[in-house]
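The methods section describes the discrete structure representation at length, but only in general terms. An entry of this sort, consisting of the sequence and the corresponding backbone structure tokens, reads as follows.
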Amino acid sequence: MPTRAPSILQAVAAAAILLLVVHGLGRFIFTPLLPLLVGDGQFTTSQGASLATWNYIGYLIGALIAIRWHQPAQIARTVPVALALHCLTLLGLALTDRTTGISVLRLGNGVSNGLIFVMVPALVMEWLAARQRINLSGLIYLGVGAGLLVSGVLANPPGFAQTAAARWWPAALLSLPLALWGGWIIVRLRVGAQPAPSVAPTASGRSPLLDKQTRPLFFAYAGAGLGYILPMTFLPMIASIQLGEAHPMVHQSWLIVACTTLPAAWLWNHLGQRLGDQPALMINYATQLASVVFALLLPGVWGIALCSLLMGSSFLGAVLLTQRLGRSLQPHQGPRLSAALIALYSVTQLIGPWLAHEWLGRGGALPETLWLGAGALLWSLIWTSKTPQAGK
């Protein structure tokens, strides 16, 4: 007896759950854990920056694989493998204190994150488009906001005394049931043939990803990766440096980010529908830029709080608006374009922790690295102004 196809609500919810798992419990939980693990003596701040870099390298590898394996059937085969890799790497992180082992595990976790973060939204977006409901695609990213909130709690759960590697157990155990349910829904989605290309294909049978319409969008997204990753990786650590390890804002900064990220997907999805994705994206980058400028010009509690508030409420909007705007410009190759955008995003966000590591190695201060993020977001704002809306 055939299994009934998932409903629209189930598909969107499953995609959101999987982003919660790989992005919240796999990737961004490292941000609130970082000052705790450094305080436990598991590794130093400089080593923590290197560990973040290994995770972003894995994310890039996953996104590059997704460019190659962008067909719906390939996605359905890859999603269970990627989810298994995520769960196994988190279990490994809960069992080792060796920096070399942690590096390998963070690399593997990044691969799983890159695969799921590219493949699942792209597949569901195509599935929704076939049902004339693509306007709901932005709600998939509610999972990222929920994941940040959950990660903020699980990083230091009340009533539990954990240290070093044991701090990973809550995220590892919660990932298992969520990955099973979300993966079961996603692999049952069936997507038909893609619409015919509206532009002439190349000799290889594919139209180019970069053309006069999409090139500014790619340039803008490159800056976005570098601009957001520095505060999103190091904000609690910067609060610890500026205010002291015992200051409440060290932990509260991440909770502010998480709480403001939770409604962000709905907010930017709504603004994109109301104003158009390109104007909404310009507002988004201006908000991200303001968040970093506040952290630079108002060092201390107010700067950290405003950066947390504005970055948390905006960075996710850049992802969903860019993905949807890109698909509207090239609807005939949505999953492939999505994978290419995320791959570029991962390259530039990979540069951020590496530059922080190099700066710290030369005696610089971690908060000073935010100047690079401000410049990158200004770059994104300029190039977004040159990006056309669909049909124009």
Q: What stands out?
A: Confidence is low (pLDDT under 50) at residues 194-205. The first helix runs from residue 8 to 28.
